[in-house]
Amino acid sequence: MKIALIAHDKKKEDMINFAIAYEYILNEHELFATGTTGKLISEATELSIHRFQSGPLGGDQQIGALIANNEMDMVIFFRDPLTAQPHEPDVTALMRLCDVYHIPLATNLAAAEIFIHGLERGDFKWREIIKAKDKK
């Protein structure tokens, strides 16, 4: 599966720890991340990550484009709900695209752990069905 990893500044440490804890599962998937988050995960793990621009510089929109083209299967986005973000419209648009295109979106550690264990069990086979249907 293609998985996007995104984290606001105050949540980057949580994302790094998540990636370290679940490296053995994430390593089996194609990973994408916004700039700084991807760099930090790469430095802390052996994971191969395709990095986009930083979120405020368009990285959220680049991931959104993949979602709109049915080229992303899951988004793990550790948001900081207590800090105003200058690119909040981009964040809202990304979340809306996940809803429109039925992309699982975890916005906190608890949801991300549910998703990661689902990946480990193979619970997301329905994404392959949707992708095959869209290709017809």
From TrEMBL:
All copies of domain MGS-like, residue ranges: 1-136
Reaction(s) the record says it catalyses: dihydroxyacetone phosphate = methylglyoxal + phosphate
Binding site for substrate: H8, K12, T34, G35, T36, T37, S54, G55, H87
Top-level taxon of the source organism: Bacteria
GO MF assignments: methylglyoxal synthase activity
Keyword Transit peptide: no
Signal peptide: none
HAMAP family, alphabetized: Methylglyoxal_synth
Protein purpose: Catalyzes the formation of methylglyoxal from dihydroxyacetone phosphate.
Protein name, per record: Methylglyoxal synthase
Organism: Oceanobacillus luteolus
